[in-house]
From TrEMBL:
<dbReference type="GO" id="GO:0005737">
    <property type="term" value="C:cytoplasm"/>
</dbReference>
<protein>
    <submittedName>
        <fullName>Leucine rich repeat containing 14</fullName>
    </submittedName>
</protein>
<keyword id="KW-0433">Leucine-rich repeat</keyword>
<keyword id="KW-0963">Cytoplasm</keyword>
<dbReference type="InterPro" id="IPR050694">
    <property type="entry name" value="LRRC14/PRAME"/>
</dbReference>
<keyword id="KW-0677">Repeat</keyword>
Length: 111
């Protein structure tokens, strides 16, 4: 049985464009749960934006998924998807690019 916060988070993420626009307005404490729900439900647009705008100094993918108090590990293993993994990678790439641009440094990677 899921908590009210989990179910509310799932509802917020139903409309991905609106959820992406709302991210700057949401408390940063919700970001870990938003990440878990977006990953599980394959909300790739939201997932990419969450990773890109992650408000904490560390984004531990492994810790986020292992410490999921609102879902079972079996469910997570069932729901691992290529789309969700690609969204995380794209979000990280955008985050690195933004940080490099803000710092005025040379890109770490070239394309």
């Amino acid at each position: 049985m899921h908590t009210l916060v989990f179910l509310s988070t799932r509802q917020v993420l139903q409309c991905q464009p609106a959820a992406c626009q709302a991210l700057p307005l949401l408390p940063r404490e919700l970001f870990p749960l938003l990440f878990k729900v977006a990953f599980m439900d394959k909300k790739t647009l939201v997932l990419r934006e969450l990773v890109h705008t992650w408000p904490f100094p560390l984004l531990s993918f492994q810790q986020l998924l292992q410490e999921c108090a609102h879902c079972s590990r079996a469910l997570l293993q069932e729901r691992l998807s290529t789309e969700s993994m690609q969204a995380v990678i794209l979000g990280l790439t955008a985050r690195i690019h933004t940080q490099e641009t803000e710092a005025g440094t040379q890109p770490l990677c070239s394309t």
